[in-house]
Design the sequence.
């Protein structure tokens, strides 16, 4: 048995990443049966984030701060950044037991060919939505058949896991429980379980393919979120550069206005001094030479 690989350290999430995650969860709760369009919701999240105030963004920055502390602690416990870069993802053991399927998965295996046959133009997501709707319409008694299948498959998984952990070879695989047709059923309905049994390997392959695609879908979602974080960071940097350029232009304008005001004040002062010089009384040439004011007698001389 292959030793279990040490789980990797989950990367940090930015404030905008927490905001996008909240948007996805709210959309999923509001529209549980609707396929999530990543590009459409990402666009709406970006537009909403730009209009939010600092107070509205504060809780997402607090979540990001706590997540950064968690990331730093896990990295330190794992051995540092160098150990993370050198770590290679462990391959899944092909001999490990297959996980147990749920009652809904067994129901989907039985009903999926029927839905696909009735709607050949439907995509995988549309078929899954229809199966979910059909499952919700089942009564408790109708669900018991598939719940019994899930219970038996869970017991199978637990037994195989015990042998796997103990290093014993796996036991021969038993086929999943199938619904037995009633003898009173018409011949056409009696053939349906046989057709379903013949198609079961194909359906199991489809289920396993979907299970294998889930990690890839999660990875694509993380990559899309990282790309959105990068775009948001670039937008913030561009906005900061534009604000800085605007501040520099305002400072230059203020400096030019101040210089104009100083030049105008100097010109006014010069004009005032010139006016004062022109209004002063003229000094006679004699006063200017002797320094004594000249006297004039109106009467006769003695």
Sequence:
């Amino acid at each position: 048995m292959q030793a279990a690989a040490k789980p990797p350290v989950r990367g940090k999430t930015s404030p905008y990443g927490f905001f996008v995650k909240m948007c996805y969860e709210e959309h999923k709760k509001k529209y549980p049966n609707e396929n999530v369009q990543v590009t459409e919701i990402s666009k709406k999240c970006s537009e909403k984030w730009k209009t939010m105030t600092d107070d509205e963004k504060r809780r997402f920055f607090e979540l990001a701060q706590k997540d950064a502390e968690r990331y730093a602690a896990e990295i330190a416990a794992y051995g540092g950044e160098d150990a993370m870069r050198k770590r290679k993802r462990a391959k899944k053991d092909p001999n490990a037991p297959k996980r147990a399927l749920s009652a809904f998965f067994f129901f989907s295996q039985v009903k999926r060919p029927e839905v696909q046959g009735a709607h050949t133009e439907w995509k995988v997501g549309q078929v899954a939505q229809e199966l979910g709707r059909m499952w919700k319409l089942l009564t408790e008694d109708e669900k018991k058949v598939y719940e019994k299948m899930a219970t038996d498959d869970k017991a199978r998984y637990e037994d195989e896991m015990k042998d796997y952990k103990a290093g014993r070879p796996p036991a021969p695989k038993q086929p999943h429980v199938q619904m037995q047709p009633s003898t009173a059923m018409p011949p056409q309905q009696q053939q349906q379980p046989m057709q379903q049994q013949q198609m079961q390997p194909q359906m199991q392959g489809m289920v396993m393919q979907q299970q294998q695609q889930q990690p890839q879908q999660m990875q694509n979602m993380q990559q899309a979120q990282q790309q959105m974080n990068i775009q948001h960071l670039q937008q913030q940097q561009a906005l900061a550069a534009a604000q800085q350029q605007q501040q520099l232009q305002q400072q230059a304008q203020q400096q030019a206005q101040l210089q104009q005001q100083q030049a105008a004040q100097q010109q006014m002062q010069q004009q005032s001094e010139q006016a004062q010089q022109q209004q002063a009384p003229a000094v006679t040439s004699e006063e200017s030479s002797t320094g004594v004011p000249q006297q004039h007698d109106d009467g006769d001389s003695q």
